[in-house]
Amino acid sequence: MEKFVKLTGVAAPMPIMNVDTDMIIPKQYLKTIARTGLGKGLFSELRYREDGSENPDFVLNKPAYRKAQILVAGDNFGCGSSREHAPWALLDFGVRAVISTSFADIFYNNCFKNGILPIKVAQVELDKLMDDAERGANATLTIDLEAQEIRGPDGGVIRFEIDPFRKQCLLEGLDEIGLTLQKEAAIESFEKKAAAARPWA
Asked: E strand or H helix at 118, and its extent?
């Protein structure tokens, strides 16, 4: 998993409440278990018209936000079904952080497992960040995970809270498999002892 230490990038404003996982990645894209290639389906029902052409009114189709790495979103982001394809699609598109006032629990947990930083802020702080994001590509945000700070284009700083264990995993780029592999020597030692003690097993 790619480490998350500090990110400076364009933030796309998405002031929609209750964005569910089907809106993030519609069900027709769930046939694959590959984590790549899903970026094209991200928000597809909003990004594309019925004839397959781009909807110019959708934020991620606007020139300023085509390479957005941060989403500033409305309350209860990631609600709905528990599909892990939702963070896969965000990551494949290039989104590394989502800022909102609240997230659905399963989506929130899945973000950390895939190298995406979900940040919870108060409504007054979200309003400020949404205003920053609406300025376009010239107004980038910087997210410093180590300092737990979001820095705006005008020099303003918003602090955020995060579980220390999850923070460390993102800083080191460790998912659950990576964490397990850190104990590889101890696991191998245990297996050898177990095999010697129970050769019949």
From this structure: strand 117-120
